[in-house]
Structure formats: structure tokens, C-alpha cells
Amino acid sequence: MKPSAQKVQDVLHAQGFTNQVVELPDSTRTAAEAATAAGCTIGQIAKSLIFAGKRSGQAILVIASGSNRVDEKQLTALVGEKVTRPDAEFVRSQTGFVIGGVPPVGHVRPLRTFIDADLLDFAEIWAAAGHPNAVFRLTPDELVQMTGGEVVALKVTPTG
Ligand code: 5CA
Hints:
This protein is an alpha/beta fold. Helices cover 28% and strands 24% of the residues. The chain contains 5 helices and 8 strands, in the order αβαββαβαβββαβ. It is globular. The structure holds 5'-O-(N-(L-cysteinyl)-sulfamoyl)adenosine. 5'-O-(N-(L-cysteinyl)-sulfamoyl)adenosine is lined by residues 28-31, 34, 45, 47-49, 85, 87-88, 91, 99-102, 127-128.
């Protein structure tokens, strides 16, 4: 297994979880690709998105359903400052992983974490596992337990 995927597997085991990291032959870099490769719907992909506090520069992890867009206004209200989308280098330095492989756990430092409430509607979901072709299957309960994330409503809801 690739070292970055093995790291995620080791962290899961160290936390007492039995979820298995799998490396797939096809890319799982985007939520759509991951859904095709894992054989699930795009909504069941738990995508790990990094935001940064505009004033503090603090990294924030949002784990969103693959079919949702995160409403930055709602996130701003939750964190108490405006947020921006950081560049790829910030994502790598704050998490230890490259975009497309950022997992919900195992980051180089603890990140304040929010979980999209829509993910709790599924019996099982899939998350990135450190590498753009590695994923693991989990339940929404496990996601909440392993991240300590706050479950919130933060998707963009279409108007009209
Ligand atoms: N492995 C898949 C499914 S779990 C995955 O990681 N998908 S993801 O959506 O969570 O990660 C890709 C996300 O990284 C994109 O949704 C996008 O928000 C973000 N991203 C892509 N390119 C950039 C970039 N240049 N700078 C900052 N963020 C980016």
C-alpha cells in the first residue's frame, strides 16, 4: 500500500476502528470518480474540504456529502470569521495530504471539524484515505466518532 494510505490505515487501527483502506485501480481523486470506483452514489462520498479563517489563518475541515456545495456564509457564522478556500500547498501543509486524498483523520495537526448533516442519512459512506486512489468505507456514526466533528447543516440550498 502507498505510504500515505498506510498511514491512514494505521491511524484507524490505532483509534480502534476496523475499517479497511482499499486502493482502487481507478482514480478516486474527485467525489464523482470516487463514487464510480467505489460503486456508490456521489452523495455517499464524504469529501474532506479545507477552508481557512481569513483573520486567523486557522485551517478548518469540512466533511461534506459529495453532492453538496458548502455554503461559506453558514460556515462563516459557525466559525465566527470569514473563510477562504486555501491553495493546494496550504492544504498539504495543514493536513499532510495532497488534494484528492485528504482523509477525515490522520492529519499532521488536529483540525476544527464540521460534518455535513446530510451524510447522516446514509447507512454507509466512503472517505478518502490519504491518496487519490485510496478510500475506506465507514458509517456516519464512525465518522463522527473518529473526527470528533460537529454535525451541522451547511450546504447551499437552491432557491426558487
Ligand atoms: N478522494 C476524493 C473523494 S473522497 C476527494 O478527495 N474529493 S474531495 O472533493 O474531497 O477533494 C477534492 C477537493 O479539493 C475539491 O472538491 C476541491 O474543493 C478541492 N480542490 C481541488 N483543487 C483545489 C485547489 N487547486 N486548491 C484548493 N482546493 C482544491
